[in-house]
Amino acid sequence: MAAFALSASFGVARTAALSCSRAVKARSARYATVTAKAVSVGDAAPDFTLMGAGFEQTTLSSLKGQKVVLAFFPAAFSGDEDGGCRCQLGALQSISKEDGITVLGISKDTPFTMGAWSDDIGIKCLADMQNEVAEQYVGTFDLGKFLDDLDISKGFTGYVTSNRGCVVIDEEGKVVYTWVGLDDKGASHPGILPNTTEIQAALGIGKVNIA
């Protein structure tokens, strides 16, 4: 029987992912997917240049030769340790810090916001203010409508941002894993979180043991 023997960070990341998954039981609402995911496994990852803290630019193609995780999220400073964007990125911290994988968070927020959020969350985050990169990789949805329909906000409909999603890119710049938070009807649902174990497997962290 084959089984993954993952790196030392596996237990930490898996525990975080399971903790997050328990918080995914959000109330149902009407919500709209504006664009569906664009990339598939085997595609060449579309290049991009985005700004982060201090308006520093990061270009994906400059990272060729490294494995890269792109973590798309709807909004900085949202969620907590048990759910939402803070949980999503928090579950990737060990992959970044312990395994040395380049992890880039991406959302519609401004570089000003991304600077403070990067310091807070411990992961480099980039501003995709026009959703151009999100539309290429994971698609977008109307977060404002989602929140209005839950009676959390009012008059927020029309605020379109990234779907929650994750893309893993190999050293050659090819997409080897893609995930988007869609419900069983194919509609965006920001309460659904990625599986950190799947992300680690796509990165090839650890090795396969034959028992």
From TrEMBL:
- What keywords sit in the KW lines? Redox-active center
Q: Which domain of life is it from?
A: Eukaryota
Domain Thioredoxin: where? 39-204
Q: Which residues span the membrane?
A: none
Gene3D superfamilies recorded: Glutaredoxin
Gene Ontology molecular function, alphabetical:
antioxidant activity; oxidoreductase activity
| PANTHER family assigned | THIOL PEROXIDASE (PTHR43110)
Q: What is this protein called?
A: Thioredoxin domain-containing protein
Q: Which organism is it from?
A: Mantoniella antarctica
